[in-house]
């Protein structure tokens, strides 16, 4: 993978007067020529038709879809996405794309970071509804959304490029395969429970943790899953699932270790 954007930038520079449009085309062209599919052995992805809902690219071997979001220098706390209802429905129905968050540096014309978030980590708590466009706007009433990427579990953040250091396709695929069991959960509620528990484990910020530390997130989990009145038993159940999947290890007496 080459992170240099110089050639692509030069190729398209004369075609656009708008810098934002130029950067969009450059980043998309780079992604199409450089990105591999982490879910299979295909080393290229293809562009989807313009205005495709909730996705920009597809792997023609395994049909995984990808949405690319690019920003200058840093991602910040949130990334602007498309229509709220479209992404909301895609998440609930299991049609959310894999997100790729890219940052670039125009001074060096290079990709600085490319963060891949598998679709099974895209859940409603990270989707923020924006204010509808005003009545005087061309698309009056249209409501967009933001992706709160910092709320995603570290397990769901796979760096393809980090601080200009490129990971191999093999490295990324190994990490993907470790968490791909989540795609077996067709039911949104079941899948989101597991990703929420992973987020809580991250928040403890310790390699070794215990049940009492996990119980501190009872209110947070109850807010995300208001129909469940047995939060503590659910925590214990899902810690066992994560142990069986090789994500954590049971040490004993309510003690666990992150693997």
TrEMBL record:
Signal peptide: none annotated. Pfam families: DpnI, DpnI_C. It comes from the Bacteria. Residues 190-257 form the Dam-replacing protein HTH domain. InterPro entries: DRP (IPR010324), DRP_C (IPR041368), DRP_PD-(D/E)XK_dom (IPR043025), WH-like_DNA-bd_sf (IPR036388). This is Dam-replacing protein HTH domain-containing protein. It comes from Geomobilimonas luticola. The lineage of its organism: Bacteria, Pseudomonadati, Thermodesulfobacteriota, Desulfuromonadia, Geobacterales.
């Amino acid at each position: 993978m080459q992170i240099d954007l110089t050639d692509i930038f030069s190729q398209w520079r004369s075609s656009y007067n708008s810098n934002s449009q130029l950067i969009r085309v450059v980043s998309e062209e780079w992604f199409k020529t450089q990105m591999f599919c982490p879910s299979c052995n295909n080393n290229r992805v293809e562009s989807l038709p313009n205005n495709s809902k909730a996705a920009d690219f597809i792997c023609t071997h395994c049909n995984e879809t990808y949405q690319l979001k690019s920003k200058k220098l840093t991602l910040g706390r949130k990334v602007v996405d498309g229509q709220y209802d479209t992404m909301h429905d895609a998440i609930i129905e299991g049609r959310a794309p894999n997100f790729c968050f890219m940052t670039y540096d125009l001074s060096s014309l290079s990709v600085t970071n490319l963060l891949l978030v598998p679709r099974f980590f895209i859940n409603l708590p990270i989707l923020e509804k924006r204010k509808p466009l005003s009545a005087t706007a061309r698309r009056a009433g249209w409501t967009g959304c933001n992706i709160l990427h910092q709320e995603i579990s570290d397990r769901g953040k796979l760096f393809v490029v980090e601080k200009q250091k490129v990971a191999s396709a093999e490295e990324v695929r190994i990490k993907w395969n470790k968490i791909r069991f989540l795609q077996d959960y067709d039911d949104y509620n079941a899948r989101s429970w597991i990703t929420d528990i992973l987020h809580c484990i991250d928040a403890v910020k310790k390699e070794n943790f215990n049940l009492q530390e996990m119980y501190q997130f009872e209110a947070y989990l109850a807010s995300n899953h208001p129909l469940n009145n047995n939060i503590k038993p659910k925590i214990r159940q899902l810690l066992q699932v994560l142990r069986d999947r090789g994500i954590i290890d049971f040490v004993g007496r309510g003690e666990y270790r992150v693997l």
